[in-house]
Amino acid sequence: MPPTRGDVYQVPSGIRPVMQLTRIEVLTWGVRHMKKFQLAAVNSPSIEIECGGVVLSTIKIKNAKKNPNFDTSSMLFDVFLPVEELYTPPLNIRLLDHRSFGVKPLVGTHMIKSLQEYRRDPVAMVQTIREKMLESGFGDAEYAIDMDFADTAVAEAAHQPPVTSTSSEEGEFKEDVDWWSKYYSSSGNEQLGRVYREKGYENMVVFEEELENYFDNFTDLAQSFPLFHGKRHEDEDL
């Protein structure tokens, strides 16, 4: 018989999955193309991320019509997960809508069954960087990677005085034109961008639509997940 703790049987260590502390980081950019739920528009949504019994929530969007993005995009939490992927619990995404009188209906869900695609080994990543540095001709002893280097650099930078440019060209640029002059010149406004254009400064690229339309929905940086909700009848839409 397996050992007991009170009236509860314990799982023998021989068959219990080996657990390790895992950090999960999620980029919650925003929501897009939300359909109506219960005959009302989803106007103030928030996201819940749950894995291994740990739940983390985003700040609700005040008005999804005006700005469908979250104010804070990065979420991270630590949770004990099995080392073997076979026993790893799924990561659940739930979307809630904040409505009047404190009503928060569950609008949609998505389940990521396997996290293997998103796993990264920090030790292996540091080793890879060290190998690339050696291949580039940097000595390992002279350019040893310190895991606390970033924090130290940030702390030192915080105590450094701000760097100001003494370049006469930059000073002339600030006196003659401003950012709006650059914008008007780049967008083709002949009158308001005339001074900037006559100075011969470079224009910038002005995008007329959402950046997602130009950069393939940022699939190189983030992955989109469709949300689904159940239906009571076969003819209902998801």
Describe this structure in words.
The chain has 238 residues and is α+β, with helices and mostly antiparallel strands. 19% of the residues lie in helices and 20% in strands. The protein contains 5 helices and 8 strands. It has helices at residues 122-135, 149-158, 168-176, 179-186, 194-198, and strands spanning 4-5, 8-9, 19-27, 45-51, 54-57, 74-82, 91-97, 106-112. A 4-stranded antiparallel β-sheet has the order 5-4-7-8, with no helix packed on it. The model is unreliable at 141-145, 147-151 and 163-173 (pLDDT under 50).
Sequence-ordered SSE layout with sheet pairings:
Layout: E1 4-5, E2 8-9, E3 19-27, E4 45-51, E5 54-57, E6 74-82, E7 91-97, E8 106-112, H1 122-135, H2 149-158, H3 168-176, H4 179-186, H5 194-198
